[in-house]
Amino acid sequence: MNSTLGVVSVKPTAEVRRKRLSIVKVLALVLLSGLVVTQVYPLLWLFIYSLKNNEEILSGRFFSLPASPQWKNFSDAIAAGHYFQYLKNSLLVTSLTMVVVLLLSSLASFAISRFRWKYGQTVMVIFLIGMMIPLQATLLPLMIIFKNMHILNTHLSIILPYVAFQTPIAVFILSGFMKSIPNEIEESAVMDGASVIRIFRSVVLPISIPPMMTVCILTFINIWNEYILAATFISSERLKTLPFGVNSFVSQYSVNYGAIGAFLVLGALPVILIYFLLADKITKGMVAGAVKG
């Protein structure tokens, strides 16, 4: 009798567990669907918006498809908005900033996390303090410094602040990862006669590919979309970056709404492409780092 009661009492428990799992799956599916809609739909809507003419846009039918796609909006945006010139400037500034940030942050993180020296924690605290400084508080001092250095209205005047503001978060990410690298790897390399530079280049850097890719993505997105410094320190039209170009185009073509939408799509396109490219490299880097670790 007791055994029968015991068997009967197990069945409701299994059913309850299955119901709970199904509820969790439904909630997860709803959450993911909501994220997809909120993230993908604005981009899709902007693309549809860029293919409409002014009459369709001003009609108020925001969710309707264009009767005849106006691909001319994109050609107008590229030609009249000097798109490729702004794109070249943004690529130059962002690429140089990413290279310098990766170089400085990886060297600093290696010294902080792998060396035993007196001021290691003090240097780390200094980098953490650098993360707390607001960008707006540095505009006037930087303006005075760059004016005295005669580098205003040059790409160097925005690359230097970009490097300064992106390096602390990069050091924070890389140093946390490098601290988790087993000491036995370095000890075996030292026994083989490897120097400190050789250990850094051949041992630590290959293992640190995943966080370095993360730093690349964060740096790229932050620098590519930055507007305040570029608008403050750059006045020459031929040196301005793409975010400022978007603002200039919107101000100049405020009555051609379709062309404005096309320029916004073109401005967002490089970020989307680079993001997915680097995201794929993060996955590969995590696998490579796990095997080498």
Order of helices and strands: HHHHHHHHHHHHH
Record field, number of beta strands = 0
Write down the Rg.
Answer: 26 Å
User: What name is given to the CATH topology of the largest domain?
Assistant: MetI-like fold
Total number of distinct structural domains:
2
Distance between the termini: 57 Å
Name given to the CATH architecture of the largest domain: Orthogonal Bundle
The main pleated sheet reads as: none
**What does the oligomeric state look like here?**
single chain
Integer average pLDDT: 82
Low-pLDDT segments:
1-11, 285-293
User: Based on CA inertia axes, which overall geometry fits?
Assistant: flat
Name given to the CATH homologous superfamily of the largest domain: MetI-like
The helix count comes to: 13
Percent range of helical residues: over 70%
Report the top-level CATH class of the largest domain.
Answer: Mainly Alpha
Beta-strand content estimate: under 5%
> Helix- and strand-based class?
mainly alpha
Short structural summary:
This protein is mostly helical and 293 residues long.
Offer a few descriptive terms.
single chain; 293 residues; mainly alpha; MetI-like fold; 2 domains; 79% helix; flat; disordered C terminus; transmembrane helix; transmembrane; MetI-like; membrane; Carbohydrate ABC transporter permease
